[in-house]
Amino acid sequence: MADFSPNNSLLLKMPSHSPNFSSLLFYGQNHGEAAPANANAAAAMVENASLESSSAVVDTSPQDSASPMERKRKTTEDSATLSSAQSKVDCKQESKSKRGKRPHKETEEKSTTQDEATKGYIHVRARRGQATDSHSLAERVRRERISERMRMLQALVPGCDKVTGKALILDEIINYVQSLQNQVEFLSMRIASMSPVLYGFGLDSDGLHDHAQMGGMFQEALAMPGPVMSQASPAPSQAIMDTTSTTPYSLQGQGSISFSQENGSTYLMQQAVGEPTRQELLNQLVFNNMCSFQ
Amino acid sequence: MSSGRSSSRGNISEDEINELISKLQALLPSSRRRGSGQASTTKLLKETCSYIKSLHREVDDLSDRLSDLMSTMDHNSPGAEIIRSILRS
After folding, report:
1. pLDDT tens column, B48-87
2. pLDDT in tens, A33-44
3. pTM for the whole thing?
4. Residue A175 and residue B2: Cα distance in Å, rounded?
5. Residue B72: its chain A contacts at CB < 8 A?
6. Across the interface, do A174 and B24 touch by the CB < 8 Å criterion?
7. Which of A196, A290, A282 shows the shortest CA–CA distance to B85?
8. In b/e form, how buried is each residue of A36-59, taking b as 16+ CB within 10 angstroms?
9. C-alpha distances in angstroms, A152 versus A157, A172, A225, A238?
10. ipTM surpasses cut 0.95
């Protein structure tokens, strides 16, 4: 049966009657057909000369959650001998094949790009000269998934594609995530400081008593809505300049202050934000009507 | 950052990578609730991916809100003064 899947990408040209293709897997996930890929490919020789070497590129279309059939891969070549190494990597019908005669190895992609957590199968093609026992295959699958994710991350993090090496990439990613977190927290503090009327914090008992009144310091102008903070703390307005002269809170000496907010996001603040004067000013401004609670 | 990330020979030891991974795990918000000893690398990386994306969105969103806020703020309030001075410096 020759199936042409226009959107999906696998051409299957096989005679339908020959029972020997255990490794014939079609990737027709949009079709309702179940592939009779026989798992017992003891000596699956694809002998048909009519098989064209259509090494199908596996379409990494998003996983259809309702796809009833198993996704399988078609591995046909003209003279490929399909080995019977079945790996037990979380699938029932998987077949590895060694490409005997194909010079380039990239013509078939691996279908490991999908998240096959629940019901998919991971099909891996063993390259020439690679071990085919189940352990190393599983290991290789895992490694490939990891490296694919790292590639995705590399694409996300700017400036990361010039770096090579797992550790360096990870380092870059860590730095970037930290800087993004700082940025987010800084921005949100700015916003919070600009409209503090609605954004009161549950005041701590730590001695922010006389500064609870600072909640109203912007009261005259800023009534911007914004579900950044939890509830409003009504307070008589005070001049802002008073707050800057107050003694700093104990929290300013803390290493890290985190306050969780209504929308559930947590901003972790580290004192290592590299803008000292500005940050201190902002600290005094903001902390005088916010409290820290951990 | 800490030195000794990669040895002078250029070999990056497994331990360093694991340390990096655990650092990354510590940054992720999803691993903060429970005592997460399990750190499947694949899941970690995937979560990092989505976390970075969400951080991007959040930064964009906050910046938009901040700019809106700045534009609608009363320019005479003392708060605005401070904000402006902060933003200027």
Report:
1. 888 888 888 888 888 888 888 777 766 656 666 666 666 6
2. 444 444 443 344
3. 0.42
4. 12
5. 224
6. yes
7. A282
8. ebbeebeebebeeeebeeebbebb
9. 9, 13, 36, 51
10. no
